[in-house]
Structures are given as C-alpha cells and as structure tokens.
Amino acid sequence: MLDSLVLNIPFKSKHLKWLGDNTKTPQAYIPLETLPNCIKTQGNIVTLSDGTKIIEEEKTIFESLPSSHTGMAFKIFERGRNCDPYVMLKCSPSKLLQGHNLYGFDDMRKGARNMLFLLAETYPDVFEMLDYKNTKVSELDLNYSIFIDTPVSKRLFMDHLRYISRGQTKNRGDNYETTVYFGSKKSRHKSLKVYSKLEELEQEIQKCKRKGYLESAKLNEALKKTDRAKQAVRFEATIKSVYLDRRAIPTNLFQFCDYFEANPWAYTALFNDAWKDIFKTLSGQELKRMNDVSVFEALRKTHETINNNTGRISIIKVNRLFAVYQTIKSLGFEHVKKNSSSSTFSRNILDIVAAGISESVLQNLKKDDGAQIIPISKILIFDFSNQVPSNYKIPPDLYGLA
Q: What's the Cα-to-Cα distance from 283 to each of 53, 142, 168, 203, 394, rounded to whole Å?
C-alpha cells in the first residue's frame, strides 16, 4: 500500500529572484511579498531605537490543508537547500481519500493527482506560480502487513525483532513497546520500521479528534474492532529519492507514475528490496512461544486501564506482569524472589494472583511448560493478495475528479 507521499514542486523561473554576485554561486529565492496574502508566515519582532517595530527573518510555516477526511501538510521553502525554491506536499493518500490507512490502494497517479488538486483548490494563486510538470517525488512509504492471531504472539515477535541487525541495516535502538525501528534517522536512502497497527490506530483516533476530523475518528473507532486491525503487524519502508536514483527509477512525478503503471509489480519489488537484509537475517530463525495466551488474557482482563485524558487503553502494567511471569517460568520462583526487592516481588505476585493465577502455580512453573517452537518463516508471510478486504473498493477522487 502506498501510505505516504512527499512531493516537491518547483516555482516557475519567472518568479525567482537571485542572491549572489560574480564570485559566488547565485542562490534563487522567492520574495515573500510576491506570495498571496493568505500564506502564513512568522518572524522575529525587533524594536528599533525610535520605537518602531519591524519583523526580521520572516519565513513561511507548515500548514495543513484540510480535506473532508484529513489534512495534507504544505510548506513553501522560499530558499531551497542546494536547489531552487519549492512547495512541499505530504500526506497519506489513503487517509486523504478514505479517512484511514488500515488498508488502502497502490495507485501513485491517483494519490499524486488528488494532492495537486487539493493544493490548486486551496491556494490557486500559489499553484499558478508552480512548475508542476517538474514535480519531484522526494519520499514515499510502502506498507504491507502480516497478521498474527494473538497479542502474546505479537509481543513476542516484536521483542524478537528488537535484536535483529544485518549489514548497514541495524536496529536503531530507540524502540517502543509496539514499534521497532531500523536504519539511521538521518539516512538519505531509506528508513524502516515495524509496528502493531492496533496501537497506531488508537493514536490516529485521538489525533483526528484533536484536529476536528470527527468522521475519520468515528471510522477508525469502528475499524479498530476488526480482526484485521487487531492482528496486523505492519512493515513500513520509507523510500527516498536517492534510493530511487540508484535504481534508475525516475523521480519526476509523471515519469514515476508511468513507471509504476508499466511495472505494477514494482510496488512490492521495491518494498522487498528495501527489507531484503532484514528478511534474510530472519530466515531460518525460530520464535519460542510459551503457550500462555490464557495467562496474558487473564492479566489483561484484570489490569488493563483506560487513560482518562486520551481514552486510550493502556496495557503497560499487563506487559510488566506478564514479563515477571515469564521470568519466573525461565529462572524459577526462588531465584526471582532472591534477586528482587522484597516489596516489589510481593506486589507483583499479589497482582498476578489477583488475575486468578495461584502462587502455588507460580512456584511450580517450569521453563518449557507448554513451549512451542515456531519458525519465523511461518509468521513472516506477506500475502500481497490479502492486504485489503475482499469487498474493498478504491475510494473516489476528491471533488469528483475523473
């Protein structure tokens, strides 16, 4: 699925001014006073000796251009870095057209067309200043999901990924409970991450509510109750223009769209190429899963909480207690008791017992009780034909575009 697209649109040369002289490379810029008054700017207010106040270092700011479902990021870079001035657009085409990205479409031209049209409708005077035929694809996200049937198995799989690296594609280290990152933050080529879609969907609901997209929030509320949302583990590849250049894939938007239409297999091929080092490392590995689904669910039923401010369900305590349970199972009750503070150990045991797991059961746990050995290859299966529901229909364009 095409989940995010970043477009850089240069200004027509007739609108540019130049800095520099014969001894320096001229730098193009767009005078802010030539932009429509509706464009938002900010700067430092400086008071002169006579009391007059002026604005210094004025520059444009990021905006969100609204659609019926969600917004599109918009920014004028009035002085490009090693390039001419341009307008940047960024959004998830699926969110823009259908209000969610639990699943969506692979259609580069459709996504880009609607982004350009939203800009033209919102700021027609700006659009007239742009050389849109030379729009460049700066970045895109390709996302595909695998599906894991239980929260326990998902958590064990994510934990396993935290220790994976290969070649230049290393685990970044700044991981979270339900997200694992690979590659450098500053990479000019690509970045990779894996995350549990359910928790990301809950964050998206709160974001939509804060920004006033209530219909999208309502839609995502319904979607998070589905098995697809509960089971999805999403692999995301952020592909950057340098990565495309090195593979002889054109970055001019219209040539880019032609390329993908002529080669529809290129979406999944590009995704697999970005992930190939990690997939190669994972091949042949095994995941040990303790058959403790009922234990996790008992802990969750007893100890999950709801944040009063965000409305999100929190299972932080559930995961902590389940980790204690697994540690006891691995190292033994007496060992954990001996190497923990008395108060912490007692509190954890009381919390586990409160979920219906007796202390005698904990004292007699054995490391391999109910253990299952699962080859990663049986989990890491991308069914590219099952990334959307069977009744999915590609959403219509904005404003009835053809």
A: 65, 22, 18, 32, 34
